[in-house]
């Protein structure tokens, strides 16, 4: 009996040691060691397709990010700037491609950041959930939120291209739609003019009893800040045929399923809940909802429908 106990004790402490080593190694790799593509030389944006790599954070060189751009031939300072946020595939170049003809026809500078991550199939906290928390649950500083990176890219482009635009628009599809609506809720001070969240898989409801990312519990969202978010122009863009959970990556946790059985229902419920809260709190409510007929979970078709909100 004593011998068995000693063996079990040894196994127990060995497992604990392995878990500690794994956790420390994982945390070090994900949040301490420098990572990302190599920085590129600072130059002005070229006509049509271009890309550059910059430091993601203002006060740190620990993380870099690649940014794709498309600049129409006739684009000039003070013309529209649109950030395009990719889906869970993190294929920013594909999303850029979907907007090229639209950009030419409407003279819009497209900026498509690429939130690269080798483990994107297993973690979402660094992108669509905004990097508010590490994979291990500890809080990240606001300077390292994914939303702050967008503001940094805007400043970088302005500074190096003598651009004086004071605002930008932003469109996101699927995981990008999650990103966009959460950015509006968590950073209402961001210089966004119009935000479009298309085909998001699930939402952060303005409910302080629900833990993030399903609700606003344990986040900086307050009664005052949500009023500022409601003032922003946010379009919840849904596809009439986006009612098949098998399309794309679809979260089916208990709390996600409470939002609705599919993306179309979840988007409708999110908008309704937000509208009701705005009424209850006598808030100015500039959010809209639009359902595109005969379109499912398709970023190209949703992009072609979204542009009307940018050019109006």
Q: How is the secondary structure organized here?
A:
Layout: H1 2-31, E1 48-57, E2 60-71, E3 81-85, H2 92-106, E4 109-114, H3 146-161, E5 168-173, H4 175-186, E6 192-198, H5 223-231, E7 233-239, H6 254-258, H7 263-280, E8 288-292, H8 299-311
Parallel strand pairs: 3-4, 3-5, 5-6, 6-7, 7-8
Antiparallel strand pairs: 1-2, 2-4
Helix pairs in contact: 2-8
Keywords: Membrane, Transmembrane, Transmembrane helix
InterPro entries: AB_hydrolase_fold
Transmembrane segments: 12-32
List keywords for this structure.
eight-stranded mixed beta sheet; 312 residues; 8 helices; 38% helix; Rossmann fold
Structure description:
The chain has helices at about 1-30, 90-105, 145-160, 175-185, 225-230, 255-260, 265-280, 300-310, and strands spanning about 50-55, 60-70, 80-85, 110-115, 170-175, 190-200, 235-240, 290. It is of the alpha/beta class and about 300 residues long. The protein folds into 2 domains: about 1-35; about 40-310, Rossmann fold (3-Layer(aba) Sandwich). An 8-stranded mixed β-sheet has the order 1-2-4-3-5-6-7-8, with helices on both faces. Helix 2 (about 90-105) packs across helix 8. It starts with a helix and ends with a helix. The model has no long low-confidence stretch (mean pLDDT about 95). This is Alpha/beta hydrolase. Keywords: Membrane, Transmembrane, Transmembrane helix.
Structure at a glance:
The protein is an alpha/beta fold and 312 residues long. The protein is built from eight helices and eight strands, in the order H-E-E-E-H-E-H-E-H-E-H-E-H-H-E-H. An eight-stranded mixed sheet has the order 1-2-4-3-5-6-7-8, with helices on both faces.
